[in-house]
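>> received
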Amino acid sequence: MKKKIITASVLGLIAFNTTPVSATESIANSLGVYPTCTGCHTNANLITAYQGNLKAAAKTAYNQDKRTLSGLKTFLAASTTPTLTCTLPQVLNTAKDSCITPPPPTCIAPKILNTAQTACINPPPPTCLATEVLKNNVCIAKPIVPTCLDTEMLKNNVCVVKPTTTVKNTKPVLNSVAQQWDEQVGELLSIPLSVNDAEQDDFTILTSKLVGSTLSEVHPDAAGLPSIDFEWTPTLANVNKIQSITFQAKETATAKKYTSNIVSVKVRVWSAGDRDTASIMKLNVMTSKFTAGNLKLAGNVKFNALLTTAERQAFIDQTLTLNVSDVNGSIYSEPLMLTKNGAWAITIPIKSVSCDITLEFAGQNASRKVVGCSQTVALSGGTYYNHDDDDHDDNKEKSYTKNNG
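>> returned
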């Protein structure tokens, strides 16, 4: 219906400077549906010249010839006001009269800005020298095999005193490590596993099977204890999952091959990017209604199951922004308050809103139809149209006619 209103308005503007009959004929000629003639300048002849839906257009064009110049200019100015639309990543400035590039985000160490200065990323691992190896994202000197004294012997790459008497073999003890580890997909996880053994027996590490995991060679840790690194790089199949892993040391060169205590850990695998973005899985919009000059929105967020209770509360306590936009650009950008369960609700005072809106929060997007959205165009002495999208049904469109004067 809106398209017909604009067509009638333009036809009326063309006709305001000529007589009603000649103007209507001129319009018909420009549309290519009414041949040039000189003897059909009556209202009845004009209607006969148009076929099908063009009859109604001819009537409207003829009636609009009667409009005053001031009324047509006023309507044309209101109908052709340009709307400024920005192309991402640019956004409207505060005055909404020009497009600007938003400042780059502030990164928290150790993260840095990417090359495009649009997002925070983990810095690439350093390039190590030929005499170095990469361990825990740091280049360290390659372990050197020590030269032992005559009274010593090499066990697990460590010089130990040669036993002078036969001693009773004891079980090795696998030292404890952190019970919870956090890793992003695609990043190397390295868990150092050191062993205490009174006899310094050779050992290996038994671990639950994990696709892609490896064990390093035995090397001394910072305290000089023999140690083996468990290494694993999670894939997309592991994202948003908790991986449980068990470790146990086992002697390899003794008669009884004693085993140690079992150490268990849990690894939370996060998606790549900022932790705030990974903290919620979905942005839900349950209510989107426009009434009495207010756009009312409500919904909830689905938290990532990896979050602990304390981490969920820490996320809620942050000041994170909800952005709402329609086809004309941004209409709202303010911090969003969440309840403990992730529910939220806002009311935005606004004169009108498009029937389709998009919401963005913490990297999650949601699109909704607006109940009660309106699209109105009023002509002086002409036709007024209102579209009510309560049920998103085009058949519910209604039209009303205003009287002149």
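>> Residues 2-15 form the longest helix (14 residues).
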